[in-house]
Amino acid sequence: MTTENRKDWDTYFMDIAFMVSTRSRCPRRHVGAVLVQGKKLLGTAYNGAPMGLPDCSEAGCMVAEQYERKMEDGVERMVKKQRCIRTIHAEQNLLLFTDRTDREGSTVYVTDEPCWTCANMLANSGVREIVYNRPYRKDMDKVEDMMNAKGILFRRLEGYEPPRETLLEAID
Predict the structure, then answer these.
(1) Is 118 annotated as a binding residue?
(2) Distance (Å, rounded) from C-alpha 96 to C-alpha 80?
(3) Which residue numbers are catalytic?
(4) What H or E segment, with its residue span, contains residue 130?
(5) What is the tens place of the pLDDT at every residue in 60-110?
(6) What structural domains and CATH numbers belong to the chain?
(7) Helix, strand, or coil here: 53?
(8) Dihedral sign, CA of 94, 99, 100, 101?
């Protein structure tokens, strides 16, 4: 491969996040995350059940319904959300299996925009930047607002095409 064909760093690390996501056995969504300091890869993680316990492909999804108030066109309404609670999210696993000192000032590449809970955890983790590919519309506005308030660079990797062999149709 010549230098002209060499992938940029964002694409390189996002490709790795998508490859990591292939370890997930969740039938709803495969998510991968990587922790990077400079150009050094410090950790990887994916979503799944706690170690040693049956995952969604073995025991089925454990879906919980939650309601949230949302303002739309000046009208408040209740919105129902469904979330699988059997799995630990990729971002949560990444934080569990990496050191705080490694996270200080680092970047997290994640296949999907973090949910509200993961965004809260990442906001307190010491990372300075979060780069994602697929939007997660259920929590998008409030997550973006929080990241802006915290001063964490938060961006979607525009124009990115994941490696074909890593794709699973996500269920929202």
Answers:
(1) yes
(2) 29
(3) 91
(4) strand 129-134
(5) 888 888 887 877 788 888 888 777 788 999 999 999 999 999 999 999 999
(6) 9-49+88-159 (3.40.140.10)
(7) coil
(8) negative
| pLDDT tens sequence across 6-42 | 999 999 999 999 999 999 988 888 999 999 999 999 9
User: How many angstroms separate the CA atoms of 43 and 26, rounded?
Assistant: 21
Which of 97, 93, 85 minimizes the C-alpha distance to 56?
A: 85
Is residue 89 marked as binding? Answer: yes
Burial class (CB in 10 A: 0-12, 13-18, 19+), 7: exposed
Determine contact, residues 120/149, Cβ cutoff 8 Å: no
Cα-based distances in Å from 26 to 3, 82, 88, 97: 37, 15, 10, 20
Residue 63 neighbours by CB under 8 Å, 6+ apart: 82, 83, 84, 85
CB-based contacts of 55-60 (< 8 A; 24+ apart in sequence): 55/25, 55/26, 55/86, 55/87, 56/25, 56/26, 56/27, 56/28, 56/84, 56/86, 56/87, 57/25, 57/26, 57/27, 58/25, 59/86
pTM: 0.86
